[in-house]
Amino acid sequence: MGVMRGAADATRLRERLVVGTSLALVCALAWWLTVWHAHAMHMAAPSADAGRIAGMFLMWLIMMVAMMLPAVFPMVDVFAAISRQRQQGNAVYARTSFFVAGYLMAWSGFSALATAAHWGLEHSGLIDAMMRSTSDLLTGALFLAAGLYQWTPLKQVCLARCRSPIGFMLTEWREGPAGALVMGMRHGAFCVGCCAVLMTLLFAVAVMNVLWLAALTALVMVEKLLPGENFCRQAIGAALSLAGAAWVLRALLA
Fold first, then answer.
1. Cβ atoms of 244 and 140 closer than 8 Å
2. How many beta carbons lie within 10 A of that of residue 204, not counting itself?
3. Does the pLDDT at position 44 exceed 90?
4. DSSP the chain
5. pLDDT tens-digit map of 123-145
6. What is the rounded average pLDDT of the residues 212-236?
7. pLDDT band for position 90 (cuts 50, 70, 90)
């Protein structure tokens, strides 16, 4: 019995290393591409060719991969563990890949909406060609919206589902690769519901400001991973609301 348990523990450790390392490598590549794109954007003149929308969508998707994958590891880890318990062999890695792919599909949908908003804001002059907000009122409104959203029931429900891997698996489990894909999409949908309004703050300061990207990533990880769910959520909401009020006041007094 002890030998069998030891072998099972070794298998589980190997799976965690494979899954964790794979996510870390994808995340590192996404961050490298994001930093590279931010640097290239400052070095090159703005482009107005027909492929710009596609490039803009790809930029948003890569940013979402870089920002959201660090906080999703606990959910992916639990998914891989349950997959191992329910079926033997390397299929656990295939199912886990489908789960992550479904998760990223949900954020692809958000990236498409963000691209449309980005295009509209740029053409209305509310953000410039370097993707920086040109309006204190827009910046303040975005901060206020993000802060107030922290207290809404939708935010609470989505955050609770994101923070509870076991609870999600118990209510959402589906068999097979297609089931894993659907589970990933559903978990991604909850994460979009939890974090999409925070992501709109990228429009508030500068979409490709790497320090701002890192700060928002840290906020997401604090909300999803640290204890004290309600305190974290409400503290972030209060801070964002105060910042938004300050920006709006500045705009009105200008």
1. yes
2. 25
3. no
4. -HHHHHHHHHHHHHHHHHHHHHHHHHHHHHHHHHHHHHHHHHHSPPP-STTHHHHHHHHHHHHHHHHHHHHHHHHHHHHHHHHHHHS-STHHHHHHHHHHHHHHHHHHHHHHHHHHHHHHHHHTTSB-TTSBB--HHHHHHHHHHHHHHTTSHHHHHHHHHHH-HHHHHHHH---HHHHHHHHHHHHHHHHHHHHHHHHGGGGTSBTT-HHHHHHHHHHHHHHHHSS-HHHHHHHHHHHHHHHHHHHHHHHHH-
5. 888 988 777 888 899 999 999 99
6. 91
7. low
Q: What pLDDT does 6 receive?
A: 56
The pLDDT score that the predictor gives to residue 218 is 93
At 105, the amino acid letter reads M
